[in-house]
Amino acid sequence: MDTSPTPDHPDICTVTQMARVLRLSRARFYQLLKQGVFPPPVYCRTTHKPVYTQHLQEVCLRIRKTGMDVNGQFVRFYAKRKNTHPAREHKQISGILRGMGLTVTTAQVHTAIDHLKLPKMDRGSPDSEAIRTLFQYFYEGRQDAV
Description:
The protein has six helices and three strands. It is mainly α. The chain has two domains: 1-80, Orthogonal Bundle (Multidrug-efflux Transporter Regulator, Chain: A, Domain 2), CATH 1.10.1660; 88-141. A three-stranded antiparallel sheet has the order 1-3-2. Strand 2 (42-43) and strand 3 form a beta hairpin.
């Protein structure tokens, strides 16, 4: 086995760097470390700071990849959540449409913009053509329900 350092695995890395490589927050990494999921770091003799050697880095990466901790127990790693906060423009547009008599939510506006493949709105006022298109989209949907 080749033990020379590679760009992917330097000789040593800090806890923060290890967490970043594993796509975990530092707090979550420490939480899993405390639970015994990941092996503890070794401490540098000169700085007394926790570090991960190349071997420990490989162990951590294997745990993340396989989902089995150092004790052979299964671990589930969840994917990072997408940002679910509606864009400010979508809130503004939904307010305009409600002012025009439609009952729409910001989420519905977001979905409609994606569905209609409307261009991304800039930070200024919404495009009147986009408002007209969205109004027709929601108004026609409302007429079908009547």
